Amino acid sequence: MLRSPHRASRWFVSVLVLSLLASVIASQPHARAATDLVLGADAEVADAQGDHVNLRSEPSYAGSILTSVPEGWLVNVLDGPFTNDADGTLWYQVVARGQTGYMLSDYLRTPGGGAVAPAAAATTTANLNLRTGPGTSYSVILVIPNGATVNTTGAVQNGFTQLTYDGTTGWSSSQYLSTSSGTTTATVFDGALNLRSGPGTNYSVVTLMPNGATVTITGSQTNGFYPVTYGSLSGYAAAAYLQIGSTPPSQTATVFDGGLNLRSGPGTSYSVITVMPDGATVTITGSLQNGFYPVRYGTINGYASATYLQIDGTSPSPTPTPTAPVIDTATVIDGALNLRSGPGTNYSVLTLMPDGATVGITGALTNGFYPVRYNGIDGYAYAEFLQFASAPSPTATPTQPTTQTAWTTANLNMRSGPGTNNGVVVVMPNGAQITITGALTNNFYPVQYDGYNGYASADYITFDEPTTPTPGDGLLIWPVSGGTWTIIQGYNGGTHNGETYMYSLDLQRADGEQATIGQTVYAPASGTVAWTSGGLLINMNNGYGIALFHVTLNSGISAGTQLTQGQPIGYVSGPGGTGYQVTPHVDMTLWQLPNGGGYPRISTPFTGQFAISGMDFPPGNLAWNTWGGTTIYP
């Protein structure tokens, strides 16, 4: 039975749940439970010792996990606190990452000063990545051009500002944003807008603000609504229908070269609302998106291809001629896929292609990427997530010997045919020796392994025999080997803080997330495995231990196993793998162990006798993200 001192009927929401159940800290005493959070306001995820907090489907540890939120993020409080009679824990109903649920109150607190600022219009001062979260370890959604106008939401974390650009919300580095000073105003657009008594459609309407009305934003966005003043009235207005800052001057344009489709969105995949005749006049209502302008034709709003619009009497641009013909088509599979400016993950993202999108193949495979055309945009897409209706036309490839010895670079599916649409015959482990029995087809090699025959992706095959790192003279070596790696989060970073995790290091391959998944992980020190719950702790039997997280361990490794420095112990987890969190990487943490592996575990810097493969990482003045961005060559 659950009890709440507040009425829950005020909010009409689905019953979901949020709590912290990070395996590493689940047995620790909790911080003092928050019982005074303001309903309808934001709360900060805190006291989680650097771990993520889980959102569950009911206010108890038995609830299923819906999503997880990093420490330091803000969530919106809907109701609570609720008491679980079974164990006495307290929970709040919150909104996090677009989902509604419950969080254990032990890990919530009123946000500290500086976490939230008034919303405002801002201008980018360079080409700027829009990311899924507040840090460089989060994936890039799109690239905002230099000089673009964006709308900030008021949330600021880790030197990143949450903002909206062309209808897409994410996080960008604050240092490349120039915000206007003074009072922030906004204009109602796309029709009259309700001014409500609270941040949600279930609140009563104070008044109706006409289209074009000017309001003043008085605080940060909550649940998709801004607090505003309209004349002498105060209330909340839906952010989706507010144009922050000055409205750009309207432009008119003329349809030319025949009738033109007015579509429901910026792309040919969107439905046609109506056909505008040749010579029709339209009003451009916003900035160019994906080659389309938002326009108003009569009383109808939609999107029109910029190629067939003559703006304010200027001469129309000639219809562009494709630089390369489409030789085949393919479908994006297994989620949205980045369209990049070149054949590699180090190239900028042009746009995000949704799952199921159809693309045209315009050339041969290069570095695991196909040149493609999507909605008129030419770029490169990762071949692993493209499914062909028919195999691409064969291209010239180096002649392969009849058979070749090769090795897998990750746990790799052997399939019955040359494509991901074929069934899996067997899973070949990372580092397995295999035999190539023929030529490359559709980026798949015919292979033989352990008596099985089939096909395997060339992206996870190497013809260079893997080497095991040689133990060094020091107590610690790097847990990875080969290639170029980057410390994507150093000391005193977003999740690296507090007594337990202050001096942790996160390692990722410099050539991207896909290259990191499946990389072999080695024991950085000799010792005895203390536990494998949510990670692995090697007790070095000198009062210290080295812990690794986000790693899928080899079978047979468990508490009590004796490990030798340099011994292969598993591989870097990908999505759905053991301990995977947001992005594939290895978390390396050195602890002083007063109790042999239990608590407390005191975070210790990698310096002096604990230098890694001879590389010293002193804490210095312990600035934000100390050693973050450092390149290593293990």
Q: Overview of this structure, please?
A:
The protein is an all-beta fold and about 625 residues long. About 0% of the residues lie in helices and about 40% in strands. The chain contains 2 helices and 55 strands. The strands form 14 sheets. Strands 44, 45, 47, 48, 49, 51, 53, 54 and 55 form a 9-stranded antiparallel sheet that branches. Strands 1, 2, 5, 6, 7 and 8 form a 6-stranded antiparallel sheet that branches. A 5-stranded antiparallel sheet has the order 14-13-12-9-15, with no helix packed on it.
Descriptive tags:
single chain; 634 residues; mainly beta; nine-stranded antiparallel β-sheet; six-stranded antiparallel β-sheet; 2 helices; globular; disordered N terminus
Structural topology:
Layout: E1 2-3, E2 42-45, E3 53-56, E4 65-69, E5 74-84, E6 90-96, E7 99-104, E8 108-109, E9 121-124, E10 128-131, E11 140-144, E12 149-157, E13 160-165, E14 168-173, E15 177-179, E16 185-188, E17 193-196, E18 205-209, E19 214-217, E20 225-230, E21 233-238, E22 242-244, E23 251-255, E24 260-263, E25 272-276, E26 281-284, E27 292-297, E28 300-305, E29 309-311, E30 328-332, E31 337-340, E32 349-353, E33 358-361, E34 369-374, E35 377-382, E36 386-388, E37 404-408, E38 412-415, E39 424-428, E40 433-436, E41 444-449, E42 452-457, E43 461-462, E44 485-489, H1 498-501, E45 505-509, H2 513-516, E46 520-522, E47 527-531, E48 536-539, E49 544-549, E50 551-553, E51 562-563, E52 568-572, E53 586-592, E54 602-603, E55 631-632
Antiparallel strand pairs: 1-5, 2-5, 2-8, 3-4, 5-6, 6-7, 9-12, 9-15, 10-11, 12-13, 13-14, 16-19, 16-22, 17-18, 19-20, 20-21, 23-26, 23-29, 24-25, 26-27, 27-28, 30-33, 30-36, 31-32, 33-34, 34-35, 37-40, 37-43, 38-39, 40-41, 41-42, 44-45, 44-55, 45-53, 46-52, 47-48, 47-51, 48-49, 49-53, 50-52, ...
